[in-house]
Amino acid sequence: MSSQEPSKVSGQFHSVKGTAVETIGDMTGLQSWSQSGKEEHAKGEGEYNAAQAKGYVEGDSVVGAVTGDKAQQTSGNIKNEKGQTQQEINKPT
Questions:
Q1: Where does this protein have compositionally biased stretches of type Polar residues (predicted)?
Q2: Could you give the CA distance from residue 68 to residue 21 in angstroms, rounded to a whole number?
């Protein structure tokens, strides 16, 4: 797995860290911390969801390959390609 691929662990870490930073910002009145925390939380949730979706798609492809179900394997491969395209579109600039 390359560092560019989404990770559930990394996504959860950034989601929780973002929530903590946002809470500190809210408690201290530091708007920059609140905003930064919200952004990190959102990115973490996005990464977690992308990793989860990637796992489901890969599962379809693998199950299809193992069972010899070419339709399921092809469907999983198409979902994977569509997901990769969507991730490229959603990449922060």
A1: 1-13, 70-93
A2: 49
pLDDT tens column, 22-61: 999 999 999 999 999 999 999 999 998 888 877 665 655 5
Position 29: which residue type? Answer: G
How far CA 19 is from CA of 31, 34, 35, in Å, comes to 14, 9, 10
Per-residue pLDDT, 69: 65
Cβ count near 88 (within 10 Å): 8
16, 22, 25, 26 alpha-carbon torsion, rounded to 10°: -120
- Which strand (E) or helix (H) includes residue 91? none
Confidence band of 4 (pLDDT split at 50, 70, 90): confident
